[in-house]
C-alpha cells in the first residue's frame, strides 16, 4: 500500500510539479521541470529558437558545486565551473527531450574561453536563412567578469555540435551612431572612449532577428551602466559597424527583445548580480532606438522583484500574434544548478504596454 501511495504521489508530482500537457502546455513557475527522461531541465539564462516546427531551448548547463571565487567576494558573484551549453527540444512546449551539450567546455584547454574556470552565460541561438547556419552568441568572461567579451559559435544543425569561433570585444575603432562630441572626449569615467581601440565591454546579452532578416546584438557595456545594440553582418557572425548606446546610465541587464505590431520591445532587469530586482520594459520604432522606458511590466504578488526572477527571453507564440511567453530565471545564488524557470504569459494592456501577471499555474493553448 505504502509503495502504491508513493507511486501515486510521484505521479502527481510529475504532473503538477513541472510542465505537463493539457490542451497545450501547462506551466508551474518555480517548480522543478522535468525532461522526457525524468531529469530536471538544465538550461539557465536561456533562449528558445523555433525552427521547422520544433522548439530548441538552449541554456547554461549548471552542475557541480556552487562556490564563491575570491575575486568576486565583494559582490557575491558565486559560480559553478562551466560545462557548456545544453539544448532541449520540444514540439509542444510541454515535453522537452534532452539533446545534450551542444557546445562543450574544454577542460583540456585551461586558458581558452571555454575553460571550466571561465564564464559562459546567456547563450542565444538564431538561424540565418541565407547561410543556413545556426549561430550561437554568448557572454564570455574571465572568472572575475573583467574580460567582458562576446563569444560566437556556429553549426549546420540546431542540435550541434557548435563550432566555437572565438570571442572579442565588439566595435573596436568605431563610434556609436548616436555618440555625441562629448562621448568621444577621454575622461576618467568615459568607458566608451577608454575602450574605443580595444572594443567595447560586452556582458549580459541577447540577439534579436528582425522580420527583414537583420540581426542585432544587445549587450550591457561600459562597465554595465550603458547598453549597446549592434547590427550584425549578414552572416550574423560579426558586428556590422552600426551600433547605438541605449538606456544610458540605467545599468540595464538581462535583455529580452521581441516585436509586436510593428514595434520593438525590450524587457530587462537592473544590475544586482543573482539577486532579483524590478523588471523594466521599453519600446522603440527601430532596434537601434531610441528606446522609451515603459516601467515594470510585472503585476501581482512580488511584482517588485520579478517574482524572484530575472528575464532571459520572450518567446512569441506561433499562430497567436498577441501572445508571448516571458521566460525568466529564479537564480539560487548558493545552489546555482537548482535555479528554477519561470515562464509566464506576456500580454499587452489597452495602452500598449507589455504586462506579465503572476500565475501559480497556467496553460498555453497551442495552435
Ligand atoms: C547577473 C547576470 C547574470 C550573471 C550574474 C552573476 O546580473 O544577469 O547573467 O552574470 O549577474 O552574478
Approximate strand percentage: 35-45%
Regions with little confidence, pLDDT below 50 for 5+ residues: 1-22
Proportion of helical residues: under 10%
Tally of strands: 24
Structural class: mainly beta
How do you describe this structure in short?
5% of the residues lie in helices and 41% in strands.
List the helices and strands and how they pair.
Blueprint: H1 2-17, E1 20-21, E2 25-27, E3 44-51, E4 54-60, E5 84-90, E6 97-104, E7 119-128, E8 133-141, E9 149-155, E10 163-168, H2 191-194, E11 205-209, E12 215-221, E13 226-232, E14 239-246, E15 253-260, E16 263-269, E17 280-284, E18 291-295, E19 298-299, E20 310-316, E21 324-330, E22 340-348, E23 354-357, E24 362-364
Parallel strand pairs: 19-23
Antiparallel strand pairs: 1-2, 2-24, 3-4, 4-5, 5-6, 7-8, 8-9, 9-10, 11-12, 12-13, 13-14, 15-16, 16-17, 17-18, 20-21, 21-22, 22-23
Describe the protein in words:
The chain has 367 residues and is mainly β. The strands form six sheets. A five-stranded mixed beta sheet has the order 19-23-22-21-20, with no helix packed on it. A hairpin with a 7-residue loop joins strand 8 and strand 9. The chain is globular, with a radius of gyration of 20 Å. The N terminus is likely disordered. It binds beta-D-galactopyranose. The site of beta-D-galactopyranose (GAL) has 11 residues, from strand 7 and strand 15.
Amino acid at each position: 500500500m505504502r509503495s502504491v501511495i508513493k507511486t501515486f504521489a510521484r505521479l502527481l508530482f510529475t504532473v503538477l510539479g513541472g510542465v505537463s500537457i493539457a490542451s497545450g502546455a501547462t506551466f508551474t513557475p518555480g517548480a522543478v521541470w522535468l525532461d522526457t527522461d525524468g531529469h530536471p531541465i538544465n538550461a539557465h539564462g536561456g533562449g528558445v529558437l523555433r525552427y521547422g516546427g520544433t522548439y530548441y531551448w538552449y541554456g547554461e548547463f549548471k552542475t557541480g558545486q556552487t562556490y564563491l571565487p575570491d575575486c568576486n567576494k565583494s559582490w557575491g558573484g558565486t559560480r559553478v565551473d562551466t560545462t557548456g551549453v545544453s539544448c532541449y527540444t520540444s514540439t509542444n512546449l510541454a515535453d522537452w527531450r534532452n539533446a545534450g551539450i551542444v557546445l562543450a567546455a574544454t577542460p583540456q584547454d585551461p586558458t581558452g574561453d571555454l575553460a571550466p574556470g571561465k564564464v559562459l552565460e546567456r547563450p542565444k541561438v538564431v538561424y540565418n536563412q541565407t547561410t543556413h547556419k545556426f549561430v550561437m552568441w554568448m557572454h564570455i568572461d574571465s572568472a572575475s567578469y573583467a574580460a567582458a567579451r562576446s563569444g560566437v559559435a556556429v553549426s549546420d544543425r540546431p542540435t550541434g555540435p557548435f563550432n566555437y569561433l572565438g570571442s572579442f570585444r565588439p566595435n573596436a575603432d568605431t563610434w556609436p551612431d548616436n555618440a555625441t562630441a562629448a562621448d568621444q572626449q577621454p575622461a576618467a569615467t568615459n568607458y566608451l572612449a577608454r575602450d574605443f581601440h580595444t572594443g567595447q565591454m560586452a556582458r549580459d546579452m541577447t540577439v534579436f532577428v528582425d522580420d527583414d532578416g537583420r540581426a542585432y546584438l544587445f549587450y550591457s557595456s561600459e562597465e554595465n551602466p550603458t547598453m549597446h545594440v549592434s547590427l550584425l553582418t549578414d552572416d550574423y557572425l560579426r558586428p556590422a559597424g552600426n551600433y547605438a548606446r541605449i538606456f544610458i546610465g540605467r545599468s540595464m541587464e538581462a535583455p529580452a527583445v521581441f516585436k509586436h505590431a510593428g514595434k520593438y520591445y525590450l524587457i530587462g532587469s537592473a544590475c544586482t548580480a543573482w539577486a532579483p530586482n524590478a523588471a523594466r520594459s521599453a519600446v522603440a520604432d527601430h532596434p537601434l532606438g531610441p528606446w522609451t522606458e515603459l516601467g515594470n511590466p510585472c503585476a501581482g504578488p512580488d511584482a517588485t522583484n520579478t517574482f524572484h526572477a530575472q528575464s532571459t527571453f520572450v518567446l512569441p507564440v506561433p499562430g497567436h500574434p498577441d501572445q508571448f511567453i516571458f521566460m525568466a530565471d529564479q537564480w539560487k545564488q548558493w545552489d546555482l544548478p537548482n535555479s528554477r524557470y519561470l515562464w509566464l504569459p506576456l500580454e499587452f494592456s489597452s495602452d500598449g504596454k507589455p504586462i506579465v501577471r503572476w500565475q501559480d499555474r497556467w496553460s498555453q493553448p497551442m495552435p
